[in-house]
């Protein structure tokens, strides 16, 4: 493995991370909006089967050098799976960096056809309640706690009770951050920078949705660590649905489309971590080849045709079915 997976400090607080991290959104619950899950997961999505699959991906990631792991209260049993793996593998706190999120609750009851899979509530009461749940599972392993899908219009960044709770958490040694969502991510990122409380921002950036890039560059310059999610656009930039121009460029380089898509993220100078949302060891291995890609101007210009308007991207994302 090349030096790109060497542990390095991220942001002004110097969180120890690797350029590729693991996000467990697709592994902690039986249904999610990622394309191709029937093929990726097969028919057995029982709790034991998903736990075993999660542990296999975590083992492969750790062996490859990955040291950042990302979960959330709404990712079904993801915190539970990660906590069990940390205990079983006797991984001491501080050996890896663990980030989780609060704000959504998983309500799918492990059902594929649930009417609702998650419910959002960005309140101080939910922050306190979910932080207690996260700490019960992850304990001293928790390094970073993030607002899940913050937006300016939600009011969460102006809620004095929430900001006070986050300041207290930060004073106690846990870094605080936020993740963003929707076509106005840039406004949310700039507001977070203005507040001056946050250590990290986690945002969507990929070959289809580049609108947050300038704001993420500003956040990086201000000292925030940048974590990039949805680098393969919930499967739209993988072999399940890759646009022809991406598929062709990947074939020419003997790569998979997902690897080329993640390489685009790694090429951004402000990107601290890009998350692999792999649902299998094979997918993780494919994602990881992104670190070997030599990204250049010609490739960037060739794939620029994939860029959608932010509104188009988020409208398409909202139409994806839980599967």
Task: Give a description of the structure.
The protein has one domain (14-315): TIM Barrel, CATH 3.20.20. The chain starts with 7 loop residues before the first strand and ends in a 5-residue tail after the last helix. The protein has 12 helices and 12 strands. Helix 2 crosses helix 3. It is of the alpha/beta class and 323 residues long. The protein has an 8-stranded parallel beta barrel, surrounded by 6 helices. A two-stranded antiparallel sheet has the order 1-2. InterPro entries: AKR2_Oxidoreductase (IPR053135), NADP_OxRdtase_dom (IPR023210).
Short note summarizing the structure:
The chain is α/β, with parallel strands linked by helices. It has helices spanning 37-41, 47-64, 78-88, 124-138, 160-171, 185-195, 213-222, 244-252, 257-266, 281-288, 297-303, 310-318, and strands at residues 8-10, 15-17, 20-23, 68-70, 97-102, 104-106, 118-120, 142-150, 175-180, 200-204, 225-229, 273-276.
Which second-level CATH architecture applies?
Alpha-Beta Barrel
The secondary-structure class comes to alpha/beta
Number of strands: 12
Global mean pLDDT: 97
Can you identify the CATH superfamily?
NADP-dependent oxidoreductase domain
- What would CATH call the class? Alpha Beta
Query: Please, how many helices?
Result: 12
Say what oligomer this is.
Answer: single chain
Radius of gyration: 18 Å
CATH topology: TIM Barrel
Q: Give the number of domains.
A: 1
InterPro entries: AKR2_Oxidoreductase, NADP_OxRdtase_dom
Protein name: Aldo/keto reductase
Pfam families: Aldo_ket_red (PF00248)
Organism: Nonomuraea guangzhouensis
């Amino acid at each position: 493995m090349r030096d790109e997976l060497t542990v390095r400090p991220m942001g002004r607080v110097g969180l120890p991370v690797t350029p590729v991290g693991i996000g467990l959104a697709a592994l902690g619950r039986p249904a999610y909006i990622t394309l191709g899950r029937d093929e990726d997961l097969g028919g057995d999505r029982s709790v034991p089967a998903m736990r075993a699959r999660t542990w296999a991906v975590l083992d492969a990631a750790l062996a490859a050098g990955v040291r950042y792991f990302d979960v959330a209260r709404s990712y079904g049993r993801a915190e539970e799976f990660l906590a069990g793996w940390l205990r079983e593998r006797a991984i001491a706190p501080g050996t890896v960096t663990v980030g989780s999120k609060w704000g959504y609750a998983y309500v799918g009851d492990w059902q594929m056809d649930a009417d609702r899979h998650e419910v959002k509530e960005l309140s101080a009461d939910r922050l306190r309640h979910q932080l207690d749940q996260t700490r019960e599972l992850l304990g001293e392993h928790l390094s970073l706690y993030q607002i899940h899908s913050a937006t300016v219009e939600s009011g969460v960044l102006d809620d004095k009770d929430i900001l006070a709770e986050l300041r207290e958490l930060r004073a106690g040694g846990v870094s605080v951050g936020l993740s963003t969502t929707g076509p106005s991510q840039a406004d949310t990122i700039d507001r977070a920078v203005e507040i001056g409380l946050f250590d990290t921002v986690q945002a969507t950036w990929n070959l289809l949705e580049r609108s947050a890039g300038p704001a993420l560059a500003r956040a990086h310059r201000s000292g925030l660590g940048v974590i990039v999610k949805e680098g393969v656009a919930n499967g739209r930039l993988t072999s399940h649905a890759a646009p022809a121009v991406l598929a062709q460029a990947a074939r020419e380089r003997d790569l998979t489309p997902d690897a080329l898509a993640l390489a685009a993220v790694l090429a951004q100078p402000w990107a601290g971590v890009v998350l692999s949302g792999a649902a299998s060891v094979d997918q993780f291995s494919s994602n990881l080849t992104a670190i070997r890609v030599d990204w250049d101007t010609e490739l960037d210009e060739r794939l620029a045709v994939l860029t959608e308007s932010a509104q188009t991207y988020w409208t398409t994302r909202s139409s994806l079915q839980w599967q």
